[in-house]
Amino acid sequence: MALKSAEEYRQSVAKQHPRLFLGGKKVEDVLADPVMQSAVEATAKMYSMAEEPEYAEIMTATSHLTGEKINRNLHISRSVEDLEKRAEMALLTSQKLGTCNYRCVGCDTLNALASVTWEMDQKNGSDYHTRFNNFLTYLQNNDLACSGAVTDAKGDRSKKMSEVDPDMYVHVTEKNADGIIVRGAKLHQSGATVANETVVIPGGFLRPGEEKFAVAFVVENSTPGITYIAQYNAYSAERETCGNIMELGNPEYGQRETCMMIFEDVFIPWERVFMCGETEFTGKLISSFAKVHRMNCGGACKVGFADIVIGASLLASEYSGTEKVPHIREMITEMVRHSEAAHACTIAAAVKGREEPVGSGVFMPDDMFGNVAKITTAYGFWQIMALAGDIAGGLVVTAPSLKDLKNEETRPYIEKYLGAAAPAEKRLRISKVLQNWTAGLHGPGTWHGAGSPQAQKIALYRSANLDEKKKVAKEIAGIND
Ligand SMILES: Cc1cc2nc3c(=O)[nH]c(=O)nc-3n(C[C@H](O)[C@H](O)[C@H](O)COP(=O)(O)OP(=O)(O)OC[C@H]3O[C@@H](n4cnc5c(N)ncnc54)[C@H](O)[C@@H]3O)c2cc1C
User: Fold this and answer.
1) For the chain, which domains are there?
2) 191 CB less than 6 Å from ligand 1?
3) Distance from the CA of 369 to the center of ligand 1, in angstroms?
4) Helix, strand or coil for residue 132?
5) In a structure prediction context, what are the per-residue pLDDT tens digits for the chain, which is 481 residues long?
6) Among 39, 98, 42, 103, which residue's Cα sits nearest to residue 307?
7) pTM of the predicted model as reported, rounded to 2 decimal places
8) 202 lines ligand 1 (CB under 6 A)
C-alpha cells in the first residue's frame, strides 16, 4: 500500500541533509531542532491522520494512475466530490494542527500541473503530461511530502522582470541532454525544509522573451546547490528557550514555518521537468494553481483556524464568567458569521467545480467562489482575531508564564488573582492559545498566504461577468440600445 506511517516519514527526514540556516546558525539535525521539529510533527500528523479510520475518507483517495490508496495530498481531483474532500481536508487538518499542514501547496501545484501539462501536450504535441504522470506515480508510490514553490524574490516591485537581476526569479541557465540548470530564489516556502520534495512553478504570467523563467519542476530536498534560510521570530526564540513546549500557544505544531529557498546552479533531470520555455502556458498554470489554492489554503484552511479561535474565545469567556453576557454572545456570533461566509464560498467553489480543460480528467474549483473565499477570509480573519482579543481581555497579552504557576513563591498569587470562574491554570493556558493567534504571525500570514488580496480583487473583477450585470440592469430600467 502506498501510505507511509508518520514514523516512516520522520525517518525519511532523518536521511535528508539540507543546507539549512535558522537564527544565524546552521541546523545540522532537523529532527533535533526545536523549531524545525514543530514542522516535522505537523507534517507527520498528516501521515498519521491518513491511517486513522475516522479520517481515512477525507485524508486518502484512490490513485487514478495506480488504483492504490494514496494520501489525498498526492491525489489529482477527478470529480466535484474530490474537490469537496480536498477542501474538507484543509479545514480538518487546520483544526487538528492550528498551523500549516505543509503538504497543501505541493498538492495544489501538482493539480495545476496535471491540468496544464495535459493542455500543453494537446496543443504542442509535447510529452510533459506522460512525464508528469510517471513522476506523480513515483511520488504516490513513495508517499512523499511535497511543498510548493511559487513566490519568487522579485526584487524591486516597480521594475519589470527584464530590469532586475534575473536571479530574482527562478530561471533556466543551461539545458543539456540530461536536464536543466536553474538559479534564483523562492521566498516564504511553507515547510520546504522538512518536505521530501518541492514542486516549483513560475510565480506569474510571462510574455514572449521571458522563456527562461517559464520553468516548472520537482526537486528533491537537499539537492546540491539549494540553501534554505528559515524564518526566525519571537515565537522561534520562545520555542528554543522555553524548556517545556507544553507552555506554548500551539505546543506540538507551533507557527507556520517558512523559509527562503535559494537555487544556485541546481541540476534538474528532464524526468522532473514539466515546463521549459512555454511562456504561453504560464498564465494558465498560475491561474489554475491560484484557483485550487484559494479554495483550500485561502478559504477552507482558515475556517479550521477560525474554529480554534472561536472555541478558545468561548472558553476564555466561560473561564472568566462572561459567557452569558449579551455582547459577548454577539461577538461570538459575529466571528461565526465571518468564518462560515468563507466556509460557504469554499463549498461553492468545490460544488461549482468542473473538468478543466475538458478531456483532461482534472477537476478545478470555481474561480469566482475560490477568490471570494480567500478574500472573505483575508478580511474576516483580522476581525475574528480582534473580537477574540476583546472577549478574552488583556490577559491574552499580559499573562505571566505557566512557570510562575509552578514557582512556589509566586504560585499563591497567580492562583488567587488570576483565578475567576475557572482556576488560573485554565485561564493561563487558553490565554496563551489566543496570544498565539491575536498577537502572533497569523494576521499577515492569512492576508498574504495564497496571494495578497489585490490579486483576488483583480481576478474577481475579471471573472464577475460584468456585462451580464449591465444587461440585467438595462432590462429592469427599460433601456434598449
Ligand atoms: C505564512 C505564509 C506562507 C506562505 N507559503 C508559501 C508557500 O508555501 N509557497 C509559496 O510559493 N509562497 C508562499 N507564500 C507567499 C505568498 O503567496 C506571498 O506572500 C504573496 O503572494 C505576496 O507576495 P509577497 O510576500 O512577495 O508580497 P508583495 O508582492 O511584496 O506584496 C506586498 C504588497 O504590495 C503590493 N504589490 C506588490 N507588487 C506590486 C506591483 N508590482 N504593483 C502593485 N502592487 C504591488 C501587493 O498587492 C501587496 O499589497 C506564503 C506567505 C505567507 C505569509
Assistant:
1) 286-477 (1.20.140.10)
2) no
3) 21
4) helix
5) 689 999 999 999 999 999 999 999 999 999 999 999 999 999 999 999 999 999 999 999 999 999 999 999 999 999 999 999 999 999 999 999 999 999 999 999 999 999 999 999 999 999 999 999 999 999 999 999 999 999 999 999 999 999 999 999 999 999 999 999 999 999 999 999 999 999 999 999 999 999 999 999 999 999 999 999 999 999 999 999 999 999 999 999 999 999 999 999 999 999 999 999 999 999 999 999 999 999 999 999 999 999 999 999 999 999 999 999 999 999 999 999 999 999 999 999 999 999 999 999 999 999 999 999 999 999 999 999 999 999 999 999 999 999 999 999 999 999 999 999 999 999 999 999 999 999 999 999 999 999 999 999 999 999 899 999 999 999 999 999 8
6) 98
7) 0.97
8) no
User: 447 C-alpha to center of ligand 1: Å?
Assistant: 9
CA 23, 28, 34, 40 torsion: positive or negative?
positive
Q: Are 393 and 318 in contact (CB under 8 A)?
A: no
Is there an atom of ligand 1 within 6 Å of 345 CB?
no
Judge contact between 345 and 270, C-beta under 8 A.
no
CB distance 99 to ligand 1 below 6 Å = no
**Cross-strand partners of 266:** 182
Site to substitute for ligand 1 among 108, 151, 255, most atoms within 8 A of C-beta: 151
